Amino acid sequence: MVDVTAPHASLSVEDLRKRITTNLQHRQGVGPKEATVADVYKATAEVIRDYLSSSWLDATRRMVEGNVKAVGYLSAEFLIGRQLSNALLNAGLTDQFEGAVKELGFEPKDVIATEPEPGLGNGGLGRLAACYVDSLASLGVPAFGYGIQYRYGIFRQEFDGQGRQVEKPDYWLSEGNPWGHEDFVRSQRVSFGGTVVDGENGARVWKPDWSVRAVPVDYLVPGYDSGRVNTLRLWTAKSYDEFDLATFNRSDYMGAVIPQVDAENITKVLYPEDSTPQGKRLRLEQQYFFVSASIHDAIRTFYAGEAQPDLTTLPDKICFQLNDTHPVIGIPELMRVLMDEYGIDWDTAWDVTRRTFNYTCHTLLPEALEVWPAKLIGELLPRHLEIIKAINAQFVEELESKGIDPEGIDRMRIFTDGPDAQIRMAYLATVGGSYVNGVAALHSQLLKDVTLKDFSAAYPDKFTNVTNGVTPRRFIKLANPRLSDLITEGLGSDRWIHDLDELEGLVPLADDASFVERFRKVKDANKRDFAAYASDKFGFSIDTGTMFDSMIKRLHEYKRQSLKILAVIAEYAAIKDGSADVDEIQPRSVFFGAKAAPGYAMAKLTIRLINNVARVVNDDPAVKGKLAVYFPWNYNIDLAEHLIPATELDEQISQAGKEASGTGNMKFALNGALTVGTLDGANVEIRERVGADNFFLFGLEVDDVEKLYADGYDPMKYVHADSRLRRAIDMVADGTFSNGDRNAYAALTSDWLTHDYFMTMADFTAYMDIQKEIEETYQKPDEWARKAILNVAHSGFFSSDRAIEDYLRDIWHTQPQR
């Protein structure tokens, strides 16, 4: 008998069917017989949102009236995925929905699939933010997620006939948005430009040139079996003067809407390309826009109706978590609000600000730590520039009082000296908040030892670690229902969905032949499902009898998709020339999923190479049934939810010391894939927890990498030492994968042979060697399945619920509100 503790709402199938029917008639203007699947989706979404609204209003009221500090999670990305299935699960309405929709004559899966996916993030950063707001609600913590309602979001990726990435706008709002509630009453004014003048009593007064209207779009975030519904508040930009009638009447029709266009550009596209001054300006406008609106919104929420609010209590009402450097301009903004709008003195304002903010750093790459030209900030936000200068001056004095030498002070300045002065946003975040955390144990240590070494030495108590986590609701329960059911059956309860540590109970079952066999059947069924999905969506014909080997992540040189594709080329060459023993070859289907930033030339060239290797390999009868390569375009959450449950081998092969954490590695392990990886990011903790015997480790470690950098790294040393690598590079260079064009990949091959900063060449041999061990293990199906089960069993630590509990205890110092 299985102990079921999942939420189950009292609303019956019949009641839900009636509500959907009423919505179809009154809101969509159709009866059930005339309705399309899109009509039913929209009606269902609106009904579920209405159903949750009373709990949402109650949670908001209790948050404001209670004495539990709330959390404001400030993030430029929230990759929330489709909302309907998640809302149904957390509200306990999945069974009722399925019954009601079937009674209306529709398939539930078709209704779910009709929902467009909001592209409000680029990858792991946005998916993490979405997991965290889910966990905050599921744990009963009062919280807001604050971000931007991008009209087009991340671009929709396509490939042209030569395998090149083509970016297309993602019209995710083209059919409306039943989940987002636009609330003009709670809009905020956000201003830019202008000058700062002296006011009364020595006050500084900002006189902006122009302003936009920040309108909140609210999404309900229902917790799983918690009764709490929190708010994800995303801001959209509107003009206060949308239309100039006089200009229109002069027949200047375009000029009449310029204010509207300028305002709406701010929230039009996620991460506008910033290689131009205009692009940089727009990015800064975006960042300031949403943090300014969010700070004012929090004050309005917690001090509603108070003519003279005591904002010295703000840190007791809410703490803001800065998710990477994008929201860091919020630090001088809060200082400005406290001093200029509420008359609070500098020292008090600084104390309030430092106790209100905390900063999560998501990188170790210096180029990813945002730095803004002081000139640009001065043009857009002149008062903020003054405040940043004052913060920097105060900070320098503090460092001098600590006895820091001049060289050390120069390294730590927030505001650099010189005619091209820069503002280092990570440094501002570190100085202006209470805590700085990394997102994996290794990453946090490297932050202290390398990236922010001087700050860690001067302020050691500021630094801590919170290893990332993922929500088991979406990434097991929803994405992998077969495995979810098997886990529940094996454990005798579904309490693991609340407490992922319960998965440890699967350990004895890894030695149970019957359970191992059922686990293998689950994976095989997931592989068949993915093959059918990929056939329908991409036209792929996938052999489900092969190993499913996946590398899905943002395309970046440090993540080393180049290493994987070079290994694929080497294997292809060995099969072609007979040097590989055909009888010992483990047939593989290799999957890539990745988008490259539009301005990242090397990443886009790598995509082109992967696509053309796939073309050549998949069209070659000599390797049919032995090796195939697939690159499904436009990788998103929907694709992840299909591919991750089907994957058997997960590639986490970044150069050691470059990946902050990763969350894909956690999703794969939780879904029963084995990992081949370096000791980088959260791989370190995954390997420690699942066991070294259940993780395929290879490659240089951080100390090895640093020593090679120091000694002078020569990639040709490794190219000469491995004939497989030489041949793979030669094939890229000689036109094998470019229809004979020897120049197509010249930039890639030149980099590999002369620079290779992320040491792909140095790790190639070790990577090829570990593949032999992988294939030998895979050819023992029960042993592979046993290792996979142990990966699932020992991955409970990587729940976003645990990560939020770490934040609550170590950083936010707050708790759930019961």
From TrEMBL:
- The yes or no answer to whether the keyword Nucleotide-binding is present is no
Question: What is the recorded function of this protein according to its Swiss-Prot or TrEMBL entry?
Answer: Allosteric enzyme that catalyzes the rate-limiting step in glycogen catabolism, the phosphorolytic cleavage of glycogen to produce glucose-1-phosphate, and plays a central role in maintaining cellular and organismal glucose homeostasis.
Q: Spell out the coiled coil positions from the record.
A: none
InterPro entries from the UniProt entry: Glycg_phsphrylas, Glyco_trans_35, Pyridoxal_P_attach_site
Listed GO MF terms: glycogen phosphorylase activity; pyridoxal phosphate binding
- Spell out the reaction equation it catalyses: [(1->4)-alpha-D-glucosyl](n) + phosphate = [(1->4)-alpha-D-glucosyl](n-1) + alpha-D-glucose 1-phosphate
Where, per the database record, does this protein carry N6-(pyridoxal phosphate)lysine?
Answer: K667
Protein name as it appears in the record: Alpha-1,4 glucan phosphorylase
- Stated EC number for the protein is 2.4.1.1
Q: Reply yes or no: does the keyword Translocase apply.
A: no
Biological process (GO), any one:
glycogen catabolic process
Q: Which cofactor does it need?
A: pyridoxal 5'-phosphate
Q: Which UniProt keywords apply?
A: Carbohydrate metabolism, Glycosyltransferase, Pyridoxal phosphate, Transferase
Instruction: Output the lineage of the source organism.
Output: Bacteria, Bacillati, Actinomycetota, Actinomycetes, Bifidobacteriales
Q: What class of enzyme is it?
A: transferase
* Family from the record: Belongs to the glycogen phosphorylase family.
Q: Which GO terms describe its cellular component?
A: cytoplasm
